[in-house]
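A quick aside before the break. I want you to see a complete sequence-to-structure record at least once, exactly as it would be stored in a machine-readable document. Don't worry about memorizing anything.
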Amino acid sequence: MDSQENEHTNEEEPPPPLSSPLPPDLATISSEIDQYISSQESLPPDAPTIIEKFLTLVEEMMEAYAHLKWTRLKEEDASCFLRTTNRVSSLVKMLAEFRSDYKYAYTINRAGSVLQRAMSYLEGEFKVMLEDHSKAPAPADLTSVCSAMLRGGYQDECCHVYFIVRRNALEEKIVQLGLEKVSIDDIHNKPWESLERDIEVWIMKFSSFAKEEFPPERNLLDSVFAGDSTIPEILFSALTCGITKHILKFAEAVALTRSSPDKLFKYLTIYEAVRDAVAGIGALLAQGVAPELKNEALMIRSHLGEAMISIITELENSIRNDHGKNPVPGGAVHPITTYIMNYLEFTAVYKNSLEQVYLEHQRLEATVAATSTVDAEGVVVSPFQAQILKIMDLLLSNLEAKSKFYKDTSLTTIFMMNNGRYMLKKIKKSGGLHSLLAETWYRKMSSDLHQYHKGYQRETWGKLLRFLNPEGLTGNNKHVKPLLKERFKNFNALFDDIRKTQTSWVISDEQLQSELRVSISNMVVPAYRSFLARYSQIFSSRRQTEKYIKHQPDDVETAIEGLFSGTPATSGKRKQ
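That is the input. The structure line, written in tokens, reads:
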């Protein structure tokens, strides 16, 4: 029971109501002071005496308020204090008109001293209330005290207090989020895998901080300094500049790390985070972002941009320097095609940002006057588009050179079809990549694939179909039969060789594989069926028929269906 009583005794209780600290004669004499203030040219002879009496009463009020917290004052007492303080401010301004008159010298000095004391009290209370309140709208007390300080000519002191309190609050928030200043050496010595995770966390926290803290901060400023458009602008610009520059030290350190292809996409996310956060700050300022912060952000974006352009340029060099002469088995998609296209696919996700990076870099370098170039078709393209087109052309040239390492011309065309189809599928899948390369490039690539297809048919199946040509097979059977034997013999040998060889070739794209098989079947099977129907009866004995006609049309069709499977062919059996 005793412990419960002690606990109850120790609990903080609401403060007891305060009796009014205002001198009883203050209201009466204040009306006389108001009359003096309203007079514009002269003061009555007794003015110094009345003013001295008023100042004495104000000093008494100050004594009474000296140890009181503003938030504990009754509303009418707080209002009266502010009215009195404003009255002293007006009195000081009015007396300044008579500073050349010696009889007012003492009164002027004393009024200034009283005003300074009142402002000192308000400054302290303003600081305490501001520390207790951090979100808009500001309590009426904050706005009223701020207004009184501004009216009293203490704008610098008021702004200084606001800036220090709010800067400390924002810096405390930064520490809580783990966004405090980092060492450049620590960043550069950290393994990239670890730094990648730090970057993800930093972007999330920085973006969240900029969105959640800065708009309310601007609203609080507008609320506290209600009616003034200049001060909130200046203070908000100064606050956001200092705080954001502090946070951006991390981005600056990362931007100066050694670049490599795997860093491109993290650089891009940092670039976007810096760009968007600074743009968000600028949207809250009538005059835009402070030049100091703008320059800092531009410098970081410039470093990141240079690193990103260097990485993409290195992608060009990796293609140029790929001189491998070992052909890919079966004419499959080359690893360099897979690597480059996957990389470009991810790059295209950041198409808009990379367009901006290249334009900014071009302006900074001032290498050309224009911000765009013209491609081979006469179409105007942006610097980033030109870069992607250049990489694609280099890749195609590299693949064409590699295709020549195949001894079989047909396999050369299969290799180009495989790689070309892979590229087209990636482009079609990626809307950003498709828009970068434009429809003209896509159509040209499709046309090239069609030509490879025709070239393959001509090189492989055109040779086979020559043996099914009826030319020279007219006349009596005695003359035709030896020719037919030779034709069937050559057909069988070449067909078996094609089946054996091309079954192990690879076409990984199912649609392309199906298209090729169908086109081959349509080209070969009807011609072979017709040839058999016309000439098979020339062989009179079953033994001769089986010797020279090894394949029935269905056998040929089945064999064609097994082409390009990437597995060795098995011996085919003649259907009876």
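Two observations worth writing down. The chain has four domains: 20-153, 161-313, 322-445, 469-561. The first strand starts at residue 373 and ends at 374. We'll return to this after the break.
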